[in-house]
Amino acid sequence: MKKSANTIKNFIINQKLLFIIILLIIILSVVDRSFFTFRSLTSIIDHITINGIMAAGMTMLLISGCFDLSVGAVLSFTGIITFLLQPYGIFISVIGGLAAGTGIGALNGLLVVKGKINAFIATLGSMIIFRGLGLGLSDSTPIKGRIEGFTKLGQGSILGIPNPVWILIITYIAIWYILKYTKFGRNDYAIGGNVLSARLTGINVNLNSFLYFVVVSFTAAIAGLIYCSRVNTASAVFGPGIEMWVIAAAVLGGTSLFGGKGGVIGTIQGVIILGIVERAMVVFNVDTNYQTLVRGLVILAVVITDTIVSRRQEKGYMSESFGARAKTN
Amino acid sequence: MPKNSLLLEMNNISKSFPGVQALDDVSFHLNEGEVFALVGENGAGKSTLIKILAGSYKSDKGEIKIQGSPITIRGPKHAIDLGVSTIYQETSLVQDISVAENIFLGRQHSARFGRIDWKAMYDESEALLNDLSINLSPKTIISRLSVAQQQMVEIARAFSFDAKIIIMDEPTAAITEEDTANLFDIIRRIVKKGVSVIYISHRLNEIFQIADRVTILRDGKTVTSMDVKDTDQKAIVKYMVGRDIGNIFGDESYQAEEDIILEANNLTRKGYFSDISFTLKKGEILGFSGLVGAGRSEVVRALFGLDQLDSGEIKINGRKAMIKNSSDAINKGITFVSEDRRIESVIQGFSVRENVTLLLLEKILNNAHLISTRKERELANKYVEEFSVKTPTLEQLAMNLSGGNQQKLALARCLSTNPAILILDEPTKGIDVGAKKEIHTLIKNLAKEGMAIIMVSSELPEIIGMCHRVLVMHEGKGMKFFSKEELTEENLMHAAVGNV
Amino acid sequence: MSDITALEERLTFKQRFARFFFSQTMLLIFIVLFIAISIASDKFLTSRNFFNIIRQSTVLGMMACGMTIVIIGKGIDLSAASILALCAVVNVMLQKYGYFTSVTTAILVGTACGLINGYLIGKVKANFIIVTLGTQILFTATALIISGGRNLKSRPEPLFSYIGDESILGIPVMGYFLAATFILFGILLHRTISGRKLFATGLNERAARVAGINTSNIIMTSYIINGFICSVASVVLTSRLPRVRVGTASEYLFDVITIVVLGGTALTGGVGGIVKTLVGLGIFAIITNGMSLLGIPYEFQQMIKGIVLVLAVLYDEFNRRKRLLY
Amino acid sequence: MFKKLTIFIVLVFLASFAFAGGGQEAEGAASGEKQITVGFSLPFIEDSPYTFPFAESLRREAKERNWKLIMTDAGGDINTQSNQIEDLVSKGVDGIMIMPVDAAGIVAVIKRVYEETDGELPMICSNVMPDPPELDELIGFAGPNSYLEGKEMGKYYVNYLRENGIDKVNYCESQGTAGYSAAIDRHNGFLDAVEELGASDMFNLLDTQPCDWSPDKAQAQTENWITTYGDKLDMIYSHNDGMGIGIVNALQDAGYSPGDVLVNGCDGQTQAVEYIKEGWMLFTVFQSPAEDAATAMRTMEKILGGESVPYWNYMETPIINGDNAEDYLPIVTELWEQ
User: How far is residue D99's CA from residue D51's CA, in Å, rounded to a whole number?
Assistant: First the structure.
């Protein structure tokens, strides 16, 4: 296949999500005039912030070849700790919440890196543990927010753009920068791509992998803060099934579940698509009985096309069965 | 640069694993700016020795001196810091990132605030690659490169560590004569720059092309060390196996029968090969030669049903055969031994027993159509003995066998169905002389008994020594058939690079 | 690895014993827990409680068998619980056309669900996590739509509730279902050609293909079987409950995966077995039951489950390394 | 190639939306000039048998009034629910009815929407009341009073025990999903009623566990209770019928006979009413989803019609017990098994 032709084609293929998004926006704007307004568009972004921020962290972890099922638990646990610490003032409570949430990530990191437990089990375990602990601490009842300023975090806005959106933007720029321009970020790809050579070139694999877990739970903790600041309540049942949503968004954005490939630019697109779908439910007035169905269909549709496309793409220059170029794993 | 100035000494190295004495009082030294060859059969202790030098193992006894000063190597990283870089058989590159980044992995150029300076990195690797006259763009993604190219990147990387010693373990196992030539040029170039190379290969002729001195190991002991110019291949082989094994391609050839068993017309798989036609007689060994990436492996894989053909027809015994997947192929009497032993030919996580019987499962059912452990063990035993696979127990995991034995295991499995057509892709890649000879003889005997054999090999001597006819491929096209008489390295090389 | 090769031959008795000891970690854990709980609660060793344990673990156990097969084939089925729910709903809704119709249809539906998963993962080769995640939502939604989310009334018919309530030779009928499933899957996995091929595929799909195994079929089949056994489990479930609703099953998913992994079947594929899963089920069952016997509050029950899961796996990993030394 | 991809995606979307959403659209267009559009934000359809007949009734009520009804399902996540409510606002509805996932969590979004729309957009809560219940931003609440239901149940037990001269019972409590407000209300309501009637010492709590409104969880839990407490167990206070049914089933398995253990329910599901008839259950509180939905829609209609409505618009939640089970049976059957 011609090289140049390839690159053009690849460009299109690599940008497919972007095209899909544009497409969706066009369709929706045609169907519903109220859709294509500043308010409505920002609100779409505003609504995906919580999941979006987590997805950014998750991307980083996925690239290193692991994943984390406990983000939902981190989210709710952070909220609970934050609101339990309210009496000590906003500062301590927020710091405490973040610390607690990030701590869970550290625990996961230890279990996986030092304990050599499969990430799926380790994080599944801490998901159960900390949802439970959250229930215990909150006595199974939601805790109400009492700090005045705290709601600003999730509900206020600067220059007409909601604060969470700012946080989202900052998170993505930060992680994008880290992944592209810092050793910490590049090591991510090295570890996900070929642990062996990562070790040989003196990358501290354990430390890095550990830190990626910390990063993902840190983003989850921030998301948790925004979450409970938006609803000014904290409960152990917040964010049910959110972990799957987040992983799906990242994978949808082209990050491989088996490490070495991906980036946050793809992820944000994945997140936005899922966000628009949610809005589309309202715009099209999808019958409640069918809303879940549509969600499922969309995920399936995207993963199938993704697979087909990337296989077409592969055929261009390499066949997976090409012994001489077999990847070493 | 003065030769004979001692760079590295390894004295009286001993290393034992529970139950085996891998190395017993082995010594050798390495001078600056020389290529030093380390030869010996698998299990002779070569890899243990270099693993000790590379810091993966610790030696029980013995001392290592670099430039006269004794040192203890604390680990792989430390070895690299000491200027000892190793290039292993499997590429240790990260597949999905660029050449430049692989070269500088872990030490990317950083400007202020630890920001990675991509431009500087690309520029420097550009310079480095030019310096070694390796013709690659530093921005290329590794997974798009051939094995040969990947090795060059590894050399460049090792060189960029300003390594004093570069260890190459079987660098040519997976690459063609032409790439080998390039590789040697590069080796000569880095040697001129004062780097010393420890070169390990089973292809003895290479040692005479590239090495200055050679040390021969057998059963964990040093047999002898000598200057290459004072010896010849026969002698080295003798030292290695401790006996004279004669022509490693087995006894002289014999006539193939006349009746055509397989006929392939205009096989085409878009992007890989096109219009490949050939016939195969009973008892014939048909060679596929050419550079890696010429499409040889792809043709045979498609023939075996692993990849889909876009067009073309296959006739077996004159009847048109539809081969949609590998099980079709096997049912039609075709079996295939992949070039990629580690990943494809044996299942590393399976025991020897399970590996051998994988194609015979129907044969080991009891009358309740369930797998009978007894029958299975008997059958497995039979084949393990027949093919003299060296394994402590039937339950031994394949991953714990030596390369040669794994290959025998693969052959045993394939032949257990006594197929009419046997396809071998690089059958002796990275296998020591002794085992090589066994396999060659085995192949010839099979052919004698009337089995039709297709053999893909990058090793010209092997192709020439084994085959009745050879099809040389170039960029997915069949260039030319050579009959036994026309088989010379020159002819094959010319065809392989595309000029007939 | 030559070291391991060499030592295989010279195993002293002590080493053999240690090898066995360290390879049966989970069994040991099970025994320890068993003793501990029976000391802690005098109600534990009563025949009634034995009934409860079996009743409560039958459905999980059957699903765990299916999941084991999928995981050994290097996959995972996040939609298992949803299949269970869908089949249960179908079964109950069709009971008015007779139990034969309802049960067969339910089983057909379940198998079909498995087929969808299998086709997308085996043939289309889409990522198994995302696919089953998608179908999970899909099946649940379908169940909702057809059931209208109501608590469907399962009209207990003699034979039907017989499965749920009665007992033969002091063992609940469900127990026989459980046993049958485990034996069947044990044979299927360890004594049949397809079972062997499944292991090969799970360990190394490419090598399996070279060995003439039609891996995409094998993978597809594993999901179909899983779908099938889920539907059978759903029949058992409905026979136990007078009322079925979609929410019913959603909790089961992670429990099932936990059980399989507790047993020691590796998520990396190709390693594991039915006996392991049985042990995993045992541990899970007695912990769950033991805790509610001891009246431990719900939230802490969850926590303890999680902690046990992590510790058990940690301990197993630790012993795996130990094992290599011997 | 890319074309194919695009087409595929578009098709999937349009297809799924079309067959899913088509119905309402048509209806909407049918009516004349001023089409009224109302939004209803549901908490979690999947997990509650209540919300489905509820939603059905909503549709019916909307049809009668020829309103366009937009419903959303929050999947049990309060944040999703807030988002969906805001989506409804952007879609431009005339009024919003909310069944909160979380009583306290919903307040923030209500306030937010109130500010954005300067109180132009009428909002009411349905079925689950917010916490704090009295909100200036909210026009009112329509639906059952789960706290009162809790009290009702407490009262009924106390009276029953007194009438039958039982002075002490050991009971277990089977709670709704931990953290959900209905569960909390029914828990507190019960205790407060017992308190007020000065009957606290009559009730000895053995154990309380959340069974997530789920029959089979309740059944498993009860089996364990029976094993642990055996004959000590006199009564099980269940937060809804679903669990009540599971409990009864466990009792039946364990060979109890009707009345050995006092069990109640709440909602008035068919099976429960049958059990009451057979004496397995003592009573249940009839909370009809249809009536609930109707109350909400009636209230909203008044508001849109410019009438002033009281803040609290409670629905009737009569008690069903042995005496009136017969009469209710056909009603509830028609309601749940439609």
Answer: 10
Q: Model pTM? A: 0.79
Same domain, D215 and D329: yes
Question: How many structural domains comprise chain C?
Answer: 1
Chains A and D touch (3+ CB pairs under 8 A): yes
pLDDT cut 90: percent of chain A above it: 30
> What confidence score (pLDDT) does residue A233 get?
87
DSSP D59-121: HHHHHHHT-EEEEEE-TT-HHHHHHHHHHHHHHT-SEEEE--SSTTTHHHHHHHHHHHTTT-S
Residue C209 domain-assigned (yes or no): yes
Angle between helices C193-203 and C215-240 (to 10 degrees): 110
Which residues are registered as beta bridge partners of C169?
none
pLDDT in tens, C284-320: 998 888 887 887 776 677 788 888 878 877 877 777 6
pLDDT of residue B457: 87
Same domain, D92 and D152: no
Residue of B nearest to C216 (CA): B325
Q: What is the pLDDT of residues A10-56, one digit of tens each?
A: 666 667 778 888 888 888 888 877 778 877 888 888 889 999 999 99
Cβ contacts (< 8 Å) between B326 and chain C: which residues? 209-214
Instruction: Kindly list the distances between the CA atom of residue D334 and the CA atoms of B386, D138, D276, D316, D330, in Å, as whole numbers in the listed order.
Output: 78, 34, 17, 18, 6
* Three-state DSSP class for residue D313: strand
Report the number of secondary-structure helices (H) and strands (E) in chain C.
Answer: 16, 4
User: Do A220 and A26 form a contact (C-beta atoms < 8 A)?
Assistant: no
Domain count, chain D: 2
pLDDT band at D24 (very low <50, low <70, confident <90, very high): very low
Give yes or no: residues D296 and D325 share one domain.
Answer: no
C141 occurs within a structural domain: yes
Q: Looking at this predicted complex, what is its ipTM?
A: 0.76
Q: Which residue has the tokens 């306030």?
A: D111
Interface membership of A107 toward C (CB under 8 Å): no
Interface touch A231/D5, C-beta < 8 Å: no
Residue A103 CB contacts under 8 Å (≥ 6 apart), including other chains: A217
- C74 lies in which domain range? 63-321
Distance CA(B19)–CA(C306), nearest Å, equals 42
Inform me whether the C-beta atom of residue D90 falls under 8 Å from chain C C-beta atoms.
Answer: no
CATH of domain A36-328: 1.10.3470
Nearest of A281, A259, A273 to residue A305 by alpha carbon? A273
Short-list D42, D34, D39, CA closest to D66: D34
Domain that holds residue D61: 35-144+290-307
